[in-house]
Amino acid sequence: MKRGKLGKLQKTLGVLSKHIAGILGRIQLPLKESVYIGILTFLITFLSFIGYIRTEPAAAQGCFVYHYGFPLEWLEVPFSVQIPFLYYIMRGGVKIIWIALILDFTFYFLLAFIVVHGIAKLKSRYAFLES
Fold this sequence. Notes:
This protein is an alpha+beta fold. The chain has helices at about 1-25, 30-50, 85-90, 100-130, and strands at about 55, 65-70, 75-80, 95. It has one domain (about 1-130). β2 and β3 form a beta hairpin. The longest helix is centred in the last third of the chain and has 33 residues, at about 100-130.
């Protein structure tokens, strides 16, 4: 039973990778633009991490939980004046919500792609109009 599901998954991933390769082949993205997209994606993700913080009081007295990441809050960090931060890390109190992180990163990648690819297309059209 599991072999059948694994085979279907591999076939689906193979078809999906062929479609993605075809799309990227049609876009003809130069290496320079790819590097810009990668840098811009990580920069926007980092800025969303440090630029958005939501605090809520926790169950314990004097304890707060900080949520980081925009638009989806993907990091939860508990904090208390009485308890050291290392205690929370060792006890697994700091949580990374992976699906939210992946969705945020995907959103920022698409945003960076649109910005970089759009600027490149505008530059090429502007250069064409000047000549």
